[in-house]
Amino acid sequence: MKLTSWAAVAAASVFVLQAETAQEKGKRVVNECLNALGGDRYLKMGNREESGRAYSFYREQLSGLSIAKIYTRYYPGVGDTAHELAQRERENFGKKEDYGVLFTEKEAWDITYRGARPIPTDRFARYKETTLRDVFYILRVRLHEPGMIFEARGSDVIENSPVEIVDITDADNQTTTVYFHQITKLPVRQVFFRRDEVTKDRNEEVTRYTKYRDAGGVQWPFAIQRDRNGEKIYEIFSDSVKFDNPKETESLYSLPSTIKLLKPE
């Protein structure tokens, strides 16, 4: 092909990219991310197991740490609206995994040797909203939800990484802003604002995703940090991540019939 022909092709490509609307570019960036995560392998994952060390912070000071194992199972057909959860999550702590938290679609419990105690409704509401607005949950469950809009906001450099910025907005006008790495196409940061159930304050929730590794055909961040209003509140470093473990049982995601049910605090 002649040099002039290559120049014409290049010019045409630039024109096509410039002709993209903000929503078209937003969808393209999100689809590129999904392919980078694993494509159909990511979309079809049924469960996930993360093992590592979890840290909690209060006013930037370490307030707790533990060996953690987090189990997540997706339930097809459950999350048909933005108000339903399509997953259950079990967070076990300690070497023996003898205490932790169980989150279901509508409620959750703190579990210890004493029994299972319902967690406060505001804490469950915070968990539910955080899950529904998490970019990995959105890509796995809510991608084709009616009213979902993906709108590009341009490019930038965040924490020394070149990123494409996309606003993901659902039918309830709830927006999560996600920063996708321009080279790897993977999410490196997300931001959304949440109204506190008790104080009614408007909180900025920021999550950072780093140290991606291949885990059985899925790219997953082995380091996740959450900040609230500029202060670090949680961090997890995974040693291993497994998807679709055939040995995982449904009983992991429900309370044993013999467990003692404790009164709410």
Any chance you could write out the topology, listing elements then pairs?
Layout: H1 3-19, H2 22-37, H3 40-43, E1 47-58, E2 61-74, E3 87-93, E4 99-103, E5 108-112, E6 115-118, H4 121-132, H5 135-142, E7 149-158, E8 161-169, E9 175-181, E10 187-195, E11 202-214, E12 219-228, E13 231-243
Antiparallel strand pairs: 1-2, 1-13, 2-3, 3-4, 4-5, 5-6, 7-8, 8-9, 9-10, 10-11, 11-12, 12-13
Characterization of this structure:
- With 265 residues, the chain is of the alpha+beta class.
- It contains five helices and 13 strands.
- It has a 13-stranded antiparallel beta sheet with strand order 6-5-4-3-2-1-13-12-11-10-9-8-7, with helices on one face.
- It starts with a helix and ends in a 22-residue tail after the last strand.
Sheet-strand content, in percent, reads 35-45%
Helix-strand topology string: HHHEEEEEEHHEEEEEEE
Characterize the quaternary organization of these chains.
single chain
> At the fourth CATH level, what is the homologous superfamily?
Lipoprotein localisation LolA/LolB/LppX
Structural class based on helices, strands and sheet pairing: alpha+beta
Low-pLDDT runs: none
Fraction in helix: 10-25%
Instruction: Report the CATH C-level class.
Output: Mainly Beta
Helix count equals 5
Overall mean pLDDT: 91
Main sheet: strand order: 6-5-4-3-2-1-13-12-11-10-9-8-7
CATH architectural designation: Clam
Which topology does CATH recognise? outer membrane lipoprotein receptor (LolB), chain A
